[in-house]
Amino acid sequence: MPEEKLRRQQSGRANASPTLEDVAQRAGVSTATVSRCLNAPERVSEATRKQVLEAVNLLGYAPNFGARALAAKRTDTFGAIIPTMENAIFARGLQAFQEELEQNGITLLVSSSSYSPQLEEKQIRALIARGADALLLIGHDRTPQSYALLESKGIPHVIAWSIDHSIPRTSIGFDNRKAMRMLAEEILKLGHRELAVISAPQDGNDRARERCQGVIDALIQYDLNPADLPIIETPYSISNGADAFQTLFQSRNRPTAVLCGNDVLAAGALSRARELGLRVPEDISITGFDDIEIAQIVSPGLTTVHVPHRKMGMHAARLLVAMRNGEYGETPAESLELPATITWRDSLGPVALRETKDLPQDR
Amino acid sequence: MPEEKLRRQQSGRANASPTLEDVAQRAGVSTATVSRCLNAPERVSEATRKQVLEAVNLLGYAPNFGARALAAKRTDTFGAIIPTMENAIFARGLQAFQEELEQNGITLLVSSSSYSPQLEEKQIRALIARGADALLLIGHDRTPQSYALLESKGIPHVIAWSIDHSIPRTSIGFDNRKAMRMLAEEILKLGHRELAVISAPQDGNDRARERCQGVIDALIQYDLNPADLPIIETPYSISNGADAFQTLFQSRNRPTAVLCGNDVLAAGALSRARELGLRVPEDISITGFDDIEIAQIVSPGLTTVHVPHRKMGMHAARLLVAMRNGEYGETPAESLELPATITWRDSLGPVALRETKDLPQDR
DNA sequence: TGAAATAATGTAAGCGCTTACATTTACGGC
DNA sequence: GCCGTAAATGTAAGCGCTTACATTATTTCA
User: Fold this and answer.
1) Which end of chain A is more exposed for a tag (fewer CB within 10 A), N or C?
2) CB of A8 within 8 Å of any CB in chain B?
3) Nearest-CB residue to A125 (from B62, B294, B296)
4) A3 contacts: CB under 8 Å, gap ≥ 6
5) pLDDT tens across B299-342, in order?
6) Which class in CATH covers the domain with range A3-60?
């Protein structure tokens, strides 16, 4: 036994964590036996196991994760990098993801990138360094280095909240563009012709981009000019949604329907609309995207695109576990598209036959 | 050089991560130099440093965290265990916490305990095993084993979102009881005498318990019988808040004011009230707690207790960093109490002079 | 110019664990 | 009782990194 270690044990520093060796000594067995006892109990006799467990409890032993990972070359840890924890967009999906992982004895490490590809790259690096066996990522926009990193380390990963069949990369989610187009068509069907959108910054956010593209698709289908579509980009937050709404409302071409890139923005828009004395949907229609909890508590309830959060999370977890276990060999697993549907509430109505001057003016 | 390693390098498995040694070899220096280059650049000459960095980039080297932690005995990683990520209660505080840590080059690991002390104990163990240098915990209720663990490993930790001067343990937060009492007094001052509360389950949640106690305190001050106070316990969620509200509303002693244990519950109560055809606050008053974003977007806006989320997070981080750096020696750092205030919006009003039969009945 | 001081680098011993392989023990069957 | 087999346990070699200590190169100054 090394001297330093010996000294430590003699002086009995209570503070330092006991090691496998301490346990072994206490139980009167070798470290190998203790290790087996913890990782493959069936390979150890009843009697010894009892002894070892006793020693473990007595000493309050907890294995050192780093050492274990180092030796075993696998951590049973997955990582997830989401753009933000601030609002609930990803919370439910992540929860499902984590529950499914837990079933498989896997721990989840979460970090958030604040919608910045650079930051995300850093996080990927950090998670890999920490030994993440596999990664959950949101959307397709990231630095080439990020992909290179993933590739070169051979880290299984799936991309959620977005899907792109043209890319040979397993993703699991829904078609943002199609979903938003569907909603936009409903709006057009209700007679609206003056649309506007409040979106998250499109740069580095393929979901936002796709959603905008979706309304453009619908516009084109109705022979309207996409160039006329006002799009305000602003980070997801209630107050930003409110401000953007006001800008739109005060502009020359006041829209009759405002499509928001997500429910948080829409909630902001809605409350500002109310503050401005507007009735929704009689005076103006507002829609969201995501169908998170706040969509149903604002009033009027938000008509929005329902995203299969939990399903995405669960499937992503299963896929990732399978990939980690090598069930797909070298070929990437197939992507999985889940349907997004419209949840009808009350914030969207038919366009009003009205004189613009009936509306409250703000000058 | 060990054989296995040699073989690997010869066969050139591109997949495995390059190690310090690979970099060293490539740069033609020793591993020690590479290590220093990364951890204490000033101790290496300009020229070598350049060479090494080049090799690092070329190889896409990223240090193995576990190995580093094992050798250096510190991880620059803090952990935080919050009860839930599902709603936004802890999001803002956590964000501030994390921002402050980042300033100090510390990475944050987050996990959630679902309000279960048992689960929390597991998480503490996991975080410690992962080498967390320090921990942020919420509230005082946890298993004795959890505390024992923290104690025996000598892990610096602070408790946030709650404060208890009677316990020799550093906490940083506000006085839940006092805050709720303050709110309840305002309600009583407005003439309400029939109060009710919708709380989170009090077991294992000292914040919930303290808040309930706070309204009891106020009741006593007004010579009212606390035994008459209906308290419904239900997990934080909008729909639970709604259901609880309905139960209360349908009970014999219909309250004139409902105090909710947090804003999420209150938002649910509010929306159900509206569904039941009640006007808030004319027919019934509803209050929240936390002052998270949804408090201002529901209508009417929620009168609620404003909790200094960001301040708590930031101070907790600073304190923890100081503790980790040994600035407090053996004595625990002092607790810090921050003030909680009332944010007045529109969901609380004076008690109505009214006949009960004027209200919509639900039978 | 040379010795002492200083800066730069190298050597190698661990950190706490897992696991291939070696060794010991237990158990039947004849 | 002896031997073969299987089960239980032990031995020890790393995993990739940091760092105390040793060594070598460079600088400084009398």
Assistant:
1) C
2) no
3) B62
4) none
5) 899 999 999 999 999 999 999 999 988 888 767 788 999 999 99
6) mainly alpha
Q: State the fold for domain B75-174+308-338.
A: Rossmann fold (3.40.50)
Classify A75-174+308-339 by CATH class. Answer: alpha beta
> At B238, which amino acid appears?
I
Q: Is the CB of A47 under 7 A from strand D?
A: yes
- Cα–Cα distance, A304 to A280 (Å, whole number): 14
**Phi then psi dihedrals of residue A310, to 5 deg:** -65, -40
Question: For all residues of chain B together, what is the average pLDDT?
Answer: 89
Find and list the nucleotides of strand D having atoms within 7 Å of a protein beta carbon.
7-20
pLDDT over threshold 90, residue B226: yes
Among B13, B65, B112, B128, most A C-beta atoms within 10 A, so best to mutate, is B65
3-class SS of residue A102: helix
> Quick one: tokens of A292?
């998170």
Mutate: best of B59, B114, B130, partner A, most A CBs <10 A: B130
Does A189 score more than 90 pLDDT?
A: yes
**Six-digit token pair at A54?**
């006793």
Query: Which residue's structure tokens are 């009214």?
Result: B354
- Using pLDDT thresholds of 50, 70 and 90, give the confidence band for residue B359: very low
Q: Is the C-beta of residue B285 closer than 7 Å to nucleic acid chain C? A: no
> Which CATH code for domain A176-306+344-358?
3.40.50.2300
Most confident of A59-68, A318-327, B252-261: B252-261
Using N-to-C axis directions, what is the helix angle for B31-39 and B46-59, rounded to 10°?
90
**SS3 state of residue B304:** strand
A234 phi and psi angles, rounded to 5 deg: -160, 145
- Which residues of chain A lie closer than 8 angstroms to B91, CB-CB? 85-87
Neighbours of B103 (CB within 10 A): 12
Angle, helix A91-103 to helix A309-324, in steps of 10 degrees: 40
